[in-house]
From TrEMBL:
<feature type="domain" description="ImpA N-terminal">
    <location>
        <begin position="10"/>
        <end position="130"/>
    </location>
</feature>
<dbReference type="Pfam" id="PF06812">
    <property type="entry name" value="ImpA_N"/>
</dbReference>
<dbReference type="InterPro" id="IPR010657">
    <property type="entry name" value="ImpA_N"/>
</dbReference>
<dbReference type="InterPro" id="IPR017740">
    <property type="entry name" value="TssA-like"/>
</dbReference>
<protein>
    <submittedName>
        <fullName>Type VI secretion system protein TssA</fullName>
    </submittedName>
</protein>
Length: 306
């Protein structure tokens, strides 16, 4: 924890979290160090060596900025990203501890700051953490079989059975348990935020627990436990006082999904549906009928056009 303590030392007595650096040259250098090309995509006619992120440099720059310039959740999230890529699952507790303690130490001063009661800018990097760290955990080495490192993703494909739990697996098992502790503490901090803004860490929590099962350090969830954890079902239909109230609920759902699943097209379709609900019928029909072939194909898939 000494490294975390050093990162959380106030930058100055008057400004413990420093200034926002989102548009500074130092932040641009950090962004550049993280950039890499997707090697699964075709290279095209002009082939060149793909860009690769320099995770050592990312960790160095992010640590330097956090201690000397600005305590920013985005920079801290990227620092944790670099740690996990460099050191695997064993770095996950450290990454989650940094975010949690920063929020606990500097609830008002931490960047992005809360303005006029709007928590969305502060919640966005945490929603990214939940999704992105879950992906990193799934792709990080979890255990070894005959000298070959096996990831959670490979284990889930069923080609590699879990080895008997051994002392060699203990450091990873302890890291997973510590990660759950910090994730629960991080979630507790966010529970004090407005419900519409509080990020969900469920996907990361489930990924960690699945790693524990693969490692043999936790029993598989039985059906009774799963039933207890399932959200309650709605026993009666939801009613709305007005058409406008129903559309407002639709927009709130779209806003929530944009924060928690920014990669999915669903929230943007919901936002579009809200807009259609406030479009005069002649304009809506004109849009449906006169759209290009791609748009008409979408309407047919949605059942709007025959």
């Amino acid at each position: 924890m000494e490294q975390i303590d050093a990162l959380l030392i106030p930058i100055s007595p008057d400004s413990p979290c420093g200034e926002s650096i989102r548009y500074s040259p130092e932040f641009d250098r950090l962004v550049s160090a993280r950039q890499e090309d997707d090697e699964s995509l075709p290279a095209g006619v002009w082939q060149s060596a793909p860009r690769r992120a320099d995770w050592e440099e990312v960790a160095r720059l992010a640590s330097h900025l956090t201690t000397t310039r600005s305590k920013d959740l985005v920079v801290m999230a990227w620092l944790g990203d670099a740690w996990i890529r460099l050191h695997g699952v064993s770095a996950l507790p450290r990454a989650l501890a940094l975010l949690t303690l920063a929020l606990e130490h500097y609830p008002g001063e931490l960047h992005p700051q809360i303005r006029d009661g709007d928590y969305d800018y502060r919640a966005a990097p945490l929603s990214w953490v939940a999704q992105h760290y879950a992906m990193l955990v799934a792709n990080a080495p979890l255990f070894a079989v005959n000298g070959e490192s096996i990831t959670l993703g490979q284990w889930q494909q069923g080609h590699h059975p879990s080895p008997p739990f051994s002392e060699a697996s203990r450091p990873v098992a302890e890291a997973l348990e510590a990660s759950l502790h910090w994730l629960q503490r991080l979630n507790a901090v966010c529970q004090h935020w407005p419900e519409a803004s509080a990020p969900s860490f469920r996907v990361l929590e489930q990924k960690i627990k699945t790693c524990q099962q693969a490692l043999g350090s936790a029993p598989p969830e039985n059906t009774q436990t799963a039933a207890v954890n399932e959200p309650p079902t709605i026993s009666s239909p939801v009613t709305f006082a007005s058409r406008e109230e129903a559309y407002q609920m639709l927009r709130q759902v779209a806003s929530y999904l944009q924060r928690t699943e920014p990669h999915s097209p669903v929230p943007y379709l919901l936002e579009r549906a809200w807009a259609w609900g406030h479009t005069p019928l002649p304009e809506l029909l004109q849009e449906l009928i006169s759209g290009d072939e791609s748009a008409r194909r979408l309407w047919r898939q949605l059942g709007v056009l025959p």
